[in-house]
Amino acid sequence: MNQTRSLLHPRDEIMQTMDRIYRYRMTTTSGGNLSIRDQSGDIWISPARVDKGNLTRRDIVCVRADGTVDGPHPPSSEFPFHKAIYEARPDLRALVHAHPVALVAFSICQKVPNTRLFHQARSVCGNVGFADYACPGTAKLGENIASTFAEGCDSVILENHGVVVGGDSLSHAFKRFEAFEFAGKTLIKAARLGDVHFLSDAQLDEAANRCVDFESFTPPEATATERELRRQLCEFVRRGCRQRLLISTEGSFSARLTGNAFLITPTQQDRENLCIDDLVLIDGEQREAGKYASRAAKAHQAIYEKHPQVQAIVFAHPVNATAFSVTDSTLDVRTIPESYVFLRDVRRVPYGIQYNVAKQHSSAKIADYVSVDSPAAILENDGVIIAGQSILDAFDRLEVLESTAEAVINAKAIGEISAMSDEVINELCREFNLK
């Protein structure tokens, strides 16, 4: 995985990443630890017995290659397994260990999440594995985990403990960690709906090899309209990440600028940290020079070309709605008036159609499944797609879709779901001028 050269000091990188993990409720005040091994062999690591919700850069500890410790606290009690993993895997430069609830659930059932749910999860998480239990902080635990990493695993479930994920940078390790937990959450939700479908090698290859070719061009000076759209897109992508509707490696958001020109999120960049300069301008078959658009850009483009009223599009992977995408269960949004008014009936898109926009002979196209009058669809094993008449409109519908999906899953645990009748739906259509 290609990484941007990091200029952050390891203290700041660990502090900021731990803040994000804690803010996402993926660890507790006392749980988890992060480390970075620098080019000199020193290991920077979060401290023992310091509140993870109030970590400062001064709290970060450096264990030098000669074993001396620099910092106001002792290093994490789990330092021995960090050291053992680095010795077993010289290619790794950073580790994330935490106790996110979904992966802990797998750890206490002695199971490993199958990341073949989605192409991106499979790609990002790398090889997954399982390490046998040993007492925290002991050399035996380090031996067990390091031996699993030595087998080529990148994301490892620890029996009755949690998870450890490695990467060639802390950013890379965090993305793996987040994607692994997301896959775990989705599997747990999907298990309440029915049998889970996993992707074959051929299906994974289909996603990886999709067409994303655009010619490079230098656009003119940005208009006030473009600048405002860039600001709004960044704001709502960041909000989507913080509300767990998007994650750092999953999802794309675009907004029409004029005609067939639109702005879209870039590929292989952390969604929460995007700034206005990162967004990519697409105009016809051209992309803004020096930038690479989301691999879903062709699908966005096809929808804009067919539906002039669509002004914004989101491809996303919110956990509850995505659980429907990996099972045969139908998401019935005839639950409360808001759900139906905002979403209408949610269609289901067969796997791979969003990747085949360049195949002109294809009888089914992604643009046939969404429009202003049919704004939401489930993408089999690939999350959801939402179309809106503004960035706010698309985001609002995404929120409603995920809330509805969560309510339906929860309702299944309570009793039989009572959907609104055709008479009620017809009344809503009349009152709100729905087609």
Automatic annotation (TrEMBL):
One of its GO terms (cellular component) is cytosol. Its EC number is 4.1.2.17. Keywords: Lyase, Metal-binding. The keyword Lyase applies. One of its GO terms (molecular function) is L-fuculose-phosphate aldolase activity. Residues 12-188, 231-409 form the Class II aldolase/adducin N-terminal domain. PANTHER family: 3-OXO-TETRONATE 4-PHOSPHATE DECARBOXYLASE-RELATED, FUCULOSE PHOSPHATE ALDOLASE. This is L-fuculose phosphate aldolase.
